User: Fold Transcriptional regulator from Companilactobacillus kimchiensis.
Amino acid sequence: MTNKLSSSEKFLWDYIQTNLTDIPELSIIKLSDDAKVSTATIVRTMKKMGYSGYTDFRQQLTANTKNNFKYKNLEKVDHDIKQAIFKNKYEVDNTLRSLNVGSIEDAIQKIKESSDIYIFARGFSEFIASEMLVKLQLLGKNCIMSSDPNIIVTMSKRIKREDLVILITLNGETSELVEGAKNAYQNGVSTLTITTNEESSISKYSDMTLLGFKSQTSYFPDYEVRSRLPLQVISRILLDSYVIRTQRTK
Assistant:
């Protein structure tokens, strides 16, 4: 959804994510003053993000915040630490909102039908790929995982049509993953991408895409070590759902 935002709307959305715990107390006029954007920009941003307006967004955020404060231990948490906690919850909540049930069902069916499954990932996404590898192998699937750039590119050229390629990438722009997806796609191999970037280069080579929500706030701005929490949530939902579906059909 954030790909539909203008530069000023993205700035506002990033500002809101950085100040989530303060938003329920801010009127649209106060937010306009604090974020240095017009009230019209606020309204447009909210509508593009799926809300009827700022009031709707604030009410939903307030309801979520009240639910969080059922846990007494959060009431005494430092303001900045509380922001970090809500950042993670916000990523999970919006990832669940973004998930398409039909896409999950399609992915389950494709995993079930595939002879071999190849999982490609780089960086921190490798940890998620490794977990998926073990779980799929435990479920009796013939599964191979690689994080090596040269192996990904070379192997993707040799994968058979009856197989499945799963790509795990936060931004969907890692060159070797894009090339691997392209190789598989051009050879008629089914590709499933788990990402947070709907408009990424890799998406045009993906038969199926499971989309998560990535917060723009990073506590390590000088390094590319952003949280893969949205990808982790999606992978767990996918494999849990796969187990449920395959057990029912036995």
Remarks:
- The longest strand covers residues 116-121.
